[in-house]
Specification:
Radius of gyration: 33 Å
Helix content: 25-40%
Strand content: 25-35%
Distance between the termini: 72 Å
Structural class: alpha/beta
Number of strands: 18
Largest sheet: 6 strands, mixed
Length: 394
């Protein structure tokens, strides 16, 4: 633009000095073209609209179609547009998608491409840079940038029956030593009616036979809740295996949550402290046990965004999470740490009457010795080293 202005000034000076009408006409012509092009470009910038559409959630291995619609809401045509979409390298190679097009008055065009979900995560699709101008290219202005949209790629889910972990099916009796809870689905007998017993407990058939009011006596049971406690501290895993170990731990947690909610239809929750790119901060997630599919989606979204962090205490996380659980709930610990601090936490949880399972992911210390100590506490230990172990473990 500076060169054009300079050229017109030179023509104007020449026209004034030489007093040639042709030069004056040329100056007026270029001035008119310049002003018209500038006005045209400003109107086009206000008239262009861009919309991006795609499924916001996917699993590893999915191909997600993306459509970018460019719309001209003005009666003036847009002679040319270059659209350059920025993409993460985890989703596409090369990490951009670029096309050139033109839009007539009130016209719209849709650009189509797809991204390949190769790793779990929370990825931006965009921003897209839109460069446009007039027909002659007289006016150049800064590109128009459209903010990115975000795609959540869930971690891989492996069928849990291959893992060999003990699970508490709704069909399995869960007796408790202390009658803090009762399961109305399991009747262990009848007893005489006492003042204060609710009418719904009256066993009418047995009452007719006995000739007096009797009520159902339910079997005491423990809570059927499971809390998955995921350790995402970088200090809990070997430095050289930090990425692979934490990714494997997330796969285990996702597989557990999916199996318990979908297959067993029991409540499950998640407790973890991670670096979360959504708020861009270190966040502690404490999701209480629930059974809804929407709750499973929430757990998977947390696991999809989870990144390792530092300066956290897994012991404190276990303590705080246990305060919100019902008596007798199951706590499944997924970690790479197998030291004395973990054993102390197991002792505290067992004394609090929680059922505890521990899955050690690529543990740094001797597994046999740790299992021996844990067995004394009544805690089952499992170890995995590779994703293949999850697929073949019976």
């Amino acid at each position: 633009m500076k060169s054009i202005v300079t050229y017109m000034v030179v023509l104007l000076v020449a026209a004034v000095v030489l007093r040639i009408d042709f030069y004056v006409a040329i100056v007026y012509l270029f001035l008119a073209i310049y002003l018209l092009s500038r006005l045209w470009a400003q109107r086009l910038r206000q008239a262009l609209r861009a919309e991006r559409h795609f499924e916001k959630r996917a699993f590893i291995g999915d191909r997600v179609p993306v459509s970018l619609t460019l719309r001209n809401i003005s009666w003036l045509p847009i002679p040319w547009i270059t659209a350059s979409e920025t993409l993460p390298v985890e989703l596409a190679t090369p990490p951009f998608h670029q096309e050139a097009l033109a839009l007539g008055p009130k016209e719209s065009q849709t650009l189509h491409y797809e991204v390949r979900c190769q790793r779990r995560g929370y990825y931006p699709i965009g921003p897209v840079r839109l460069q446009m101008g007039d027909l002659l290219g007289v006016v150049k202005h800064n590109p128009l940038q459209v903010e990115p949209s975000y795609l959540t790629v869930y971690p891989r889910i492996i069928p849990l029956q291959h893992l060999g972990l003990p699970t508490r099916s709704p069909l399995v009796a869960l007796p408790a030593r202390s009658p803090l809870f009762e399961d109305p689905s399991r009747i262990m007998g009848v007893r005489d009616y006492k003042r204060g017993d609710p009418p719904k407990r009256i066993h009418w058939t047995a009452t007719a036979r006995a000739g007096r009011l009797v009520v159902k006596n339910y079997q005491p049971a423990i809570a059927r809740e499971t809390l998955i406690c995921l350790d995402m501290s970088e200090d809990s895993y070997a430095r050289g295996e930090l990425h692979s170990a934490t990714e494997l731990a997330i796969i285990v947690a996702a597989s557990l949550a999916h199996h318990i909610i979908v297959e067993e239809r029991l409540p499950v929750g998640l407790a973890t402290e991670v670096w979360d790119p959504l708020p861009r901060d270190q966040v502690r997630h404490l999701l209480p046990p629930r059974t809804e599919r929407a709750h499973l989606t929430q757990i998977l979204e947390v696991l999809a965004r989870a990144r390792v962090t530092s300066g956290i205490s897994f012991t404190n996380l276990l303590r705080d999470a246990s305060l919100e659980l019902s008596w007798g709930s199951t706590m499944t610990l997924v970690t790479g740490r197998g030291d004395s601090a973990l054993l102390e936490s197991l002792l505290v949880l067992r004394r609090a009457s929680f059922a505890v399972n521990v899955i050690l992911v690529q543990p740094r210390q001797g597994f046999a010795e740790l299992r021996q100590h844990a067995s004394i506490l009544g805690v089952q230990l499992h170890q995995i080293w590779h994703e293949h172990d999850l697929e073949t473990w019976r």
